[in-house]
Structures are given as structure tokens and as C-alpha cells.
UniProtKB/TrEMBL annotation:
Membrane-spanning intervals of the chain: 23-42, 219-242
Source species: freshwater metagenome
PANTHER family for the chain: CAPSULAR EXOPOLYSACCHARIDE FAMILY (PTHR32309:SF31), TYROSINE-PROTEIN KINASE (PTHR32309)
UniProt entry tagged with the keyword Nucleotide-binding: yes
Gene3D superfamilies per UniProt: P-loop containing nucleotide triphosphate hydrolases (3.40.50.300)
Signal peptide: none
Protein name: Unannotated protein
Keywords, ordered alphabetically: ATP-binding, Membrane, Nucleotide-binding, Transmembrane, Transmembrane helix
Keyword RNA-binding among UniProt keywords: no
SUPFAM superfamilies reported for this sequence: P-loop containing nucleoside triphosphate hydrolases (SSF52540)
Length: 465
């Protein structure tokens, strides 16, 4: 068999899942805050207006009088781009004020070509009055700039005609006229007239109108974005934490780090078959005396396992006494029908009850009876009571009456009571769940050395709940 090695560090997904109890609430909290913010700031308001443009075909100032259909489509596209260009938006910023700049207006204004040869101006913002003001300012700025452009084109065309006229006048005798000069003058008048008629190239403009705004879409967008940000943030933090705290996913590694033999692997929970196998294996390492079974951390399946092992040994004919030493979570007391007010371990250690009063008989299904001591009533400073000389004396007397005293103890890393019971026991068996951090096992081994508690074996729980 190859030498076991520590498992590699977790990946991002595995790390997030390991710390999900902390990461998921953070993601949910960010999503809720984003949703509240989106709701309070209100939905965005869209204001639209349509500018119906003059057909430029046949106007000498534009497209040289061509009538090609593609020229109209290109013209509309160019005009839509001009309506949302920086040149237009600079004038809109001056008109509207409110500290707006071109960069902000780019996020508000959009111009598109409609099917009916018009340009639709859409202004979207959180402020309805701002959307209306910007939308009106865009159409005004467009018309002013387009009108100036038309006049500029007309002036250039007329200027060229004037140069031609001056050239012809210089060639003919003084006082005479020419038909060519008259044609040029007619063209100049026609160009000026067409420019005046074409003006800004806008037939009419619809009044800006507000489109029904929705709070749902911004709320959903903010919520999803915040949740995604939370996933990325907590995932990155969890990954960094996982890199610093690698986990153990190999039973051989767990036993090696705890420096104890591996006496069993739980792969199907605490089934009867698993308990029978573990009871057999434990018999080879724990002959008798006071045996404490504890989990390394909270969440270990050790309480039900203690009951299963005790039942298996009882059916073998051994005199077994089960003690519920898990004072904070007395699962065995609940399993065997002993309430918190029942006489139990704390009463016995405190001198408030005798062994005869504390020990109760539990009838197993289709089998013999098993002896059991419940946790007893809640007391202050329970850890001090459990590691007292009285505790050692009481447990010593009990082991004289029974083949084995099997104690269910709280997790060693999380509860002082678990360490206290381990310090007065003849042996300790640890249930190690899959995925426990390697550093926790090292710290647990050191704690057991300080307590001088003999670790008899390790049970590896693959099916951690």
C-alpha cells in the first residue's frame, strides 16, 4: 500500500462549499441590500420622441440629386448616429445643465432608425423630468445643428456657382450678358430656395412622451449582479482560506496524523452492520475499563455509534454500561427515553443520587437488557465536575461492576466537557468526519498528549451529515 499523503488543497467550488454556511448568507445579504437599493431609488423612466425626416432625394445639396433607395437608408442611419454624437450631446449638456457631461449623456440618449423613415430618440434615466428635458434638448440641438449644416452646404454650392459666374463675366465684353450666366443665377436661386425649404431636414417632431417605467427589471438586475458579486467575493476568500487550511479526505491520513490505529470506516452512516463491524474491531484494542467515544468536531456521528456498539457488545453477552456524557446535546438520553429531569450522571457525580438510582435498564429489541446512565440535570461548571477526583472515583467503581463503561462525550475540539471526560478515561476513540482540516487533527493530537489520554483508535466517517 502506498504511503498516505495529505489531500491536495480544495478548488474554488469545493472551497466555497466547505465554507457555505458563511458564504451563502453573505451572498444573500448583498442581494437583499441591492434589491432594497433598487426599490428605493425607483425604476428607470424612458421618454421617447420621433423625428420624421424630409426625404433628401432630389435635393442638390444632398446626395447630388440621386434617387437610389439605399441612399435613403444610409442617410437615415447617418442622421441617427449624428443625433447621438458627441457634437449633439455637447449642445444638450449646455442646454440642460444639471452638471451633465457628454459621458453621462451617452448612457441616457439612444437614437435608432424606425421603419417609417423616422428617427426615434430614447432617453432613459432614474429622473422622469431629466429624461423629458434631455429628450427635448436632443431634438432641438439636432435641428439647430442640421439647419446650420444645410446652410453651410448651400453656401458652399452657391459660392462655387458665384465663382463660375465671375469667371464668365470676365470673359465677355462689358455690358453684355450670356445665357450661361443666367443659368448660373437660376441655379443659385434654386439652391438657396431648396436649402430654405429643406431647413433642418425634419418634417415634424412628436412631443416627448413617457413610456411606462418598471421597477422589476432594475430590481432583478441589481439583485442578480449583487449575488454574483457575492459569489465571486466569498468564493475567492473561501479559496484563500482553503489553501491555508487543507482538509483530510483519506482515513489513513487521519489515523496517521492522530498517531492511532484506524479501527473502522463508516460508509453508510450508523447502520447496524457498521456498528457490528466496529464493535468487533474495538474489542481488539479496548479490552475493558472506561472507554470514551467522542467526535473530533461538531457534526460527528458518534452518539448513535455509541448506542450501536453498546447494543452489539450487549448481545455478545458482555456487561456494558452506557453513559451519556454529552451534557449539552444528550442524544442518547433522548434515544433511551430519559428526560432532562431524570436522575443521571451529574446527580451521581454531585452526590445527589446513588448508583442504583442513576442506572436504568434499557430493553433491547429481541434481545437482552442494557444498562444506561442519562446525562442528568443541567449544572454549572460541568467540565470541572467531570474531571474532578469524584468523577474518577465514581467511574472506577462503575468499571468494577461492568465489563466496559462506554461514555458518549462531546466533541473534543469544541467542548471542554469532552476533554474533561477524556482525562479520566482508560481510553479514547475518536470519530473523525470526512473533510476535517488537517490542522484540527494536529491540534487534537496535542490536546490528547497534554491530557495524557490514551487514544486507542480512530473511526473515519465518510458519510458526514
Amino acid at each position: 500500500m502506498p504511503t498516505p499523503t495529505e489531500s491536495t488543497a480544495a478548488g474554488p467550488v469545493e472551497a466555497f462549499w466547505r465554507y457555505r454556511t458563511r458564504a451563502v448568507p453573505v451572498c444573500v445579504a448583498l442581494a437583499v441590500l441591492a434589491a432594497v437599493f433598487a426599490f428605493l431609488t425607483g425604476g428607470q423612466t424612458r421618454v421617447v420622441t420621433d423625428m420624421f425626416l424630409t426625404d433628401p432625394r432630389g435635393v442638390p445639396v444632398f446626395r447630388d440629386g440621386t434617387t437610389a433607395a439605399t441612399d435613403v437608408a444610409s442617410y437615415l442611419t447617418q442622421r441617427a448616429q449624428f443625433a447621438q454624437s458627441d457634437t449633439t450631446l455637447e449642445q444638450v449638456a449646455v442646454t440642460v445643465g444639471r452638471g451633465l457631461d457628454v459621458e453621462q449623456l451617452r448612457g441616457i440618449v439612444a437614437a435608432t432608425v424606425s421603419e417609417n423613415s423616422s428617427i426615434r430618440i430614447t432617453c432613459t434615466s432614474n429622473d422622469p423630468t431629466l429624461s423629458l428635458a434631455v429628450c427635448g434638448a436632443v431634438t432641438d440641438a439636432y435641428q439647430a445643428l442640421a439647419r446650420a449644416d444645410t446652410q453651410r452646404r448651400a453656401d458652399i454650392a452657391i459660392g462655387e456657382l458665384q465663382q463660375q459666374r465671375q469667371a464668365l463675366l470676365a470673359e465677355i465684353p462689358s455690358g453684355q450678358t450670356s445665357g450661361s450666366i443666367q443659368e448660373i443665377e437660376v441655379d443659385m436661386a434654386r439652391t438657396a430656395k431648396q436649402a430654405a425649404l429643406f431647413d433642418a431636414g425634419v418634417e415634424f417632431v412628436d412631443a416627448p412622451r413617457e413610456v411606462a417605467s418598471s421597477r422589476i427589471m432594475p430590481l432583478v438586475q441589481y439583485t442578480v449582479a449583487a449575488f454574483a458579486f457575492g459569489l465571486i467575493l466569498t468564493g475567492a476568500i473561501a479559496w484563500l482560506a482553503a489553501l491555508r487550511r487543507p482538509i483530510v479526505n483519506d482515513p489513513e491520513v487521519a489515523a496517521e496524523q492522530l498517531q492511532a490505529p484506524l479501527v473502522g470506516i463508516l460508509e453508510d452512516g450508523t447502520s447496524t452492520n457498521s456498528a457490528e463491524v466496529l464493535a468487533t474491531n474495538l474489542s481488539s484494542v479496548a479490552g475493558g475499563g472506561v472507554l470514551v467515544v467522542s467526535g473530533s468536531v461538531e457534526g460527528s456521528n458518534h452518539s448513535d455509534l455509541v448506542a450501536g456498539i453498546a447494543e452489539a457488545w450487549t448481545r455478545e453477552g458482555r456487561q456494558v454500561l452506557v453513559v451519556d456524557g454529552n451534557l449539552r446535546k444528550p442524544r442518547l438520553s433522548a434515544r433511551f427515553g430519559a428526560g432532562l429531569s431524570s436522575v443521571g450522571l451529574t446527580d451521581l457525580l454531585g452526590g445527589l443520587a446513588t448508583e442504583m438510582a442513576a442506572i436504568r435498564s434499557v430493553k433491547l429489541p429481541d434481545g437482552p437488557s442494557m444498562n444506561f446512565i442519562s446525562c442528568g440535570q443541567s449544572v454549572d461548571h460541568a467540565a470541572s465536575l467531570l474531571r474532578s477526583t469524584t468523577s474518577r472515583s465514581v467511574l472506577s467503581k462503575l468499571q468494577e461492576r461492568f465489563d466496559v463503561v462506554l461514555v458518549d462525550a462531546p466533541p473534543m475540539m469544541d467542548r471542554a466537557e469532552g476533554a474533561a471526560l477524556a482525562s479520566v478515561a482508560d481510553g479514547v476513540v475518536l470519530v473523525v468526519p470526512s473533510g476535517v482540516p488537517s490542522s484540527d487533527l494536529v491540534a487534537l493530537r496535542r490536546r490528547l498528549d497534554v491530557l495524557r489520554a490514551p487514544l486507542l483508535g480512530v473511526i473515519y466517517d465518510v458519510d458526514r451529515k
